[in-house]
Amino acid sequence: xxxxxxxxxxxxxxxxxxxxxxxxxxxxxxxxxxxxxxxxxxxxxxxxxxxxxxxxxxxxxxxxxxxxxxxxxxxxxxxxxxxxxxxxxxxxxxxxxxxxxxxxxxxxxxxxxxxxxxxxxxxxxxxxxxxxxxxxxxxxxxxxxxxxxxxxxxxxxxxxxxxxxxxxxxxxxxxxxxxxxxxxxxxxxxxxxxxxxxxxxxxxxxxxxxxxxxxxxxxxxxxxxxxxxxxxxxxxxxxxxxxxxxxxxxxxxxxxxxxxxxxxxxx
Amino acid sequence: xxxxxxxxxxxxxxxxxxxxxxxxxxxxxxxxxxxxxxxxxxxxxxxxxxxxxxxxxxxxxxxxxxxxxxxxxxxxxxxxxxxxxxxxxxxxxxxxxxxxxxxxxxxxxxxxxxxxxxxxxxxxxxxxxxxxxxxxxxxxxxxxxxxxxxxxxxxxxxxxxxxxxxxxxxxxxxxxxxxxxxxxxxxxxxxxxxxxxxxxxxxxxxxxxxxxxxxxxxxxxxxxxxxxxxxxxxxxxxxxxxxxxxxxxxxxxxxxxxxxxxxxxxxxxxxxxxxxxxxxxxxxxxxxxxx
Lengths: 267, 291
Fold this sequence. Notes:
- The structure holds two protein chains of two kinds.
- By secondary structure, chain A is of the alpha/beta class.
- Chain A is built from twelve helices and nine strands.
- The longest helix of chain A has 20 residues, at 225-244.
- The radius of gyration of chain A is 18 Å and the shape is globular.
- Chain B starts with a helix and ends in a 10-residue tail after the last helix.
- Strand 9 (265-266) of chain A pairs antiparallel with strand 4 of chain B, so a sheet runs across the interface.
């Protein structure tokens, strides 16, 4: 694996040609149908989801949508979901549970949207509800961080049996910029903050939060989409059957313990 | 009347407490209480006697966890859980250990939450109380672990959980481990709920960030104290995003009640009685009649 700093990786994932779920979904899943809406308020384009087939097996795919250009980004709000996005994700996750389909979450967000409407409609409650329900959802769940895993807005799709990260992806409790401005009152120190926060794929594996790093083509996923898709496909081909063969009671016990054991303290 | 409300809420956000020192009259901290919301001045003795509620604007000032327990539970009924648990420095964050040690000295707390068992008017429950004087009650490994254990012990003992929440959010000094405490605590709430047990949240000033987006929002019953701040994103962050000033009552308890995220607003002086009666409604009659 290449030896890059957190900041260098952030530059790679910010590359305007970095593939998004709009590239990955058609390449990975056959006959994908997108389903819309949370059945309460509306349809949030920052999160898309639906059903498709992976190597002959039906799966539910739920993904945060980064745009590939300004128009797409306007439509998907730069991948920053509102509460209705999280509620749509939960609706589709429960649908997957009903029909015994594994769930694949693709995480790629700067964070949950911060705005008036988001607060009015209960951004905190929507994320909390997902954490609670996903912790015990009776079907296998795989989460893959494609680029940016921004705090609670990412975790709402990140309560899973296995967390994988693309090699250059980052996952953080707070954006390095936010941390720099709180800690040092200087947002321009985000490079230092990125390093201090331990946010790279490798960091997350060593902290026991992520299970696997999915390698990227040299220089980043944008340099070879086909190869990136192959690596993702290999990962899913190994992981879906492994989780699906686990008895549900064991799977849920393991999922509980995966999060239960995270934390360091003395007593 | 309505304007007064807005004014007091505005002052909560706008008054720079330090700037008070520049005012002509300096107030000895131990003698007088000056309300940070409306500027009302009270004798400290009266303020303390009124459960730390401002007599002019009904601002429910922040309490330490010890004060909260004393005000809420039966005398001598508290058995504390995990009282020696302390955080490490899992991601080697600069100055974190020193900062924690200073806070431990200053507050007498090991971290930002106290958990344990108690009775409220003889009705048994597990209680979780966050303390905003300790690093704004941010949630790191210790807070997450103590809360998860509190729910697990409540399941074993078939007890309800009452959580007084207050927090600035996740503790960034513990990095991603702090974020994962949101999942850990929510999963523990789920197990407690699936066991058919009651969970009451009492949101106090301020309940924000990762705590709002996890166990605080997951009570069967959600109570808030009057005029407290409750929200997901920080006010300044939102103002920065939308480039305009927010309404003054934005993210107040009353705002959340109106939008359907809080069941009821309960004044501090009625809190103990309210909790006792709710416990009774859920099958914990206790040994004494409620008055």
